[in-house]
Write a sequence for this structure.
């Protein structure tokens, strides 16, 4: 059984740029959730995708957007990057919307 | 709005001593509570989920709805328990079904 994978591991961008982060869900899972973890904080929910539809969104502006593909992998896109977007971005997959969430290793984004 | 509070950022105990990591929550509905753990250089992983009522690695947690608490306990701490622990809450239904709200985490250090 393959676990949740994320790419890239690290990324450096400058303010105003756009970024795409990728997540491959665990085999058999149809739900992907994205979280932002700032340094010294717990993860904060960005949004969740269930069977290719957005299923709930946290308190993040519209420049944070996502996508889920037919194979249930997912992308997180962030436009007009700001310095405060620097964080670890975590992806988690689950077998359904309320199933146990299995986390990937994260993508460390630095915005300069 | 739902909220999870972990009052201790750092907790140190000696091997063999009892350990209790505190978690308090605020939520108007019927919550589902979790403890996640992150060992050094590893990804976030589920330790236990209150509905399963399991004991994992000797840890237990009881949901106290009167005190809105979900403290994590272990009678005899081991050095390998040293890690970051996060308490998390999920809604059982509604528009943010499956969304996890995390506390800020407690770093547990078990000394030999």
């Amino acid at each position: 059984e393959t676990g949740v994978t994320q790419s890239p591991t690290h990324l450096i961008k400058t303010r105003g740029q756009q970024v795409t982060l990728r997540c491959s869900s665990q085999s058999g899972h149809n739900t992907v959730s994205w979280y932002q973890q700032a340094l010294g904080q717990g993860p904060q929910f960005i949004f969740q995708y269930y069977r290719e539809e957005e299923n709930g969104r946290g308190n993040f502006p519209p420049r944070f957007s996502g996508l889920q593909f037919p194979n249930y992998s997912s992308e997180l896109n962030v436009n007009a990057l700001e310095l405060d977007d620097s964080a670890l971005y975590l992806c988690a997959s689950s077998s359904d919307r309320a199933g146990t969430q299995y986390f990937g290793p994260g993508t460390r984004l630095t915005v300069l | 709005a739902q909220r999870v509070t972990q009052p201790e950022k750092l907790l140190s105990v000696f091997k063999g001593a009892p350990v209790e990591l505190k978690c308090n929550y605020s939520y108007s509905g019927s919550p589902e509570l979790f403890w996640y753990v992150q060992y050094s250089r590893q990804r976030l992983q589920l330790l236990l989920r209150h509905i399963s009522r399991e004991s994992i690695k000797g840890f237990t947690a009881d949901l106290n709805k009167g005190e809105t608490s979900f403290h994590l306990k272990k009678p005899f701490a081991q050095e390998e328990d040293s890690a970051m622990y996060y308490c998390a809450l999920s809604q059982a239904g509604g528009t943010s079904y499956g969304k996890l709200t995390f506390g800020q985490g407690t770093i547990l250090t078990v000394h030999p």
About this structure: Residues 50 and 94 of chain A are 9 Å apart (CA to CA).
